[in-house]
Amino acid sequence: MSVFLKTASHSHNERIARIIWAAHMLFYLTNTQSHNRQPQDTKNNGECDDRDTNEPSDNETDYETERAVILSGSRTPIRRKFLDCIAQLLSPCKGWNGVTATAIREGEDGVEVDVARNDGFFSRGDRADSAVITYCTRLEGYLAGCDEGSTEVTATSPEEFELKAINFARRRVDYWIEDLREVLKHHLNSTKSTDGLPQSSPRQEDANTWMTIKDLILQSCPNQCATRYRVLVVQQAYKCVNTPEIQQTLSDNFGAQIATKLWTKLNFLARPLADCRLLASIVTREPHFRNCKIVPIPPKPKTTLEPKYMIEIFTAWEQIGLESPPKCVIQKLDRFNKEFKTTCAEAFSLHAEMQLVLHYEEKLAPPPTLDYFGCSKKTCLLCEIVLDTLPSPVSTRGRHGVCYPAWGVPNSGADTIQLAVQRLETSLVDRIGGFLGGLMHPRRKGQAVNTMQSGFVSDLSRLTLEELQKRENDVQSFKSKQAVHRNELMIR
Ligand SMILES: [Zn+2]
């Protein structure tokens, strides 16, 4: 064991408890605000308010851009796209449960792809697991069967696996059909007639393609042939996103803003078919990828705190070693005081990315040959911190920067995991400290800028001398409260 680890003598269990406490506190203070550090990511902040679903921010690239990546022929981007496509094809639904992550081991004659899912493959031992195994085998068969020309398959005659892929993702597809229908109904009156266009012009053709999917979406799904309807919609959406000129048609019809919205939704709808075709295109360029073994990994134990770590929020705050918070923070945290103890007592599953990390640390499979995990969704803040602190940092398609407290902590005696977890704790405590610093010194550049709650700041900036005195008293009362909690804890 390294000297560094010896000096940090907190027990691993205690550290795990502090991470869970700190993650909850950071979440209570900043909610679903993004903690992204790079300014270009902040544009997604407003879209990250749905903690369990795929937001448009998870899919900022469209099919055209993805194809360009593959056609560029660059080695690493192609492998990354390969992993992302497989992750997406194996993610059956929107929401936390269905999030998947993939990693690759590449040999001369073939590749192995490990895949993990948030809710854990084989964790229930029901029919769904055997269905996944069959689906993986079919995907392997699809990749094996892709050869020159298969990417030219028309949207009206998808391969057998492509139909399976659409069916596998039916809950996701149905969601986007409904979503697109709502938007279309809302903006129906904006649709302009295309009668003035010459019948044989490419623009008329584009307009017709768009009108076909629009009519399909607006008609209700016939119950008895839902599967067929779904396939038709996905095929038509794929045809649209494969014709970039349709963006212009949409813009002409609805204006630029709504056109962008519709285009994003069409990309989501086309996803199962687009992923299959992207994979087909990739294996044409990397023929040894046809020999692909897909391995769903078994789930990892959930994180559960020992009863002695289920404590009051202000006691936890003190044990983490945080300075006394200002009144507005006390008030904010106090609102969560009741639920804190019970919430922290829940069993938290490991996110798919962390399952993969642990899988390799436990030497249950040889390590991947690429420092990249494919993901069906952007990586959360806590996973991002851990992936960044590994000896060989692992990147993903991007991060949304939101702190989700229901996060299982990788637990292992391996030095790598112990160090990563130790750094995660430090990082979370620093972030809470940075948040407090931002409240106390709102103008201090770079501190808590994108996590600040405007109400807190205005509370502080309006303080009079008298109020400052009152706040000081509040801090004193908080300290005595802490002392009481400490005593209670010792008595137990
Ligand atoms: Zn995560």
From TrEMBL:
Q: Which InterPro entries match?
A: OTT_1508_deam-like
Region annotated Disordered sits at: 35-65
Write out the biased-composition intervals (Basic and acidic residues).
38-54
Pfam families this protein is in?
Answer: OTT_1508_deam
Q: What is this protein called?
A: Uncharacterized protein
User: Which organism is the protein's source?
Assistant: Aspergillus sclerotialis
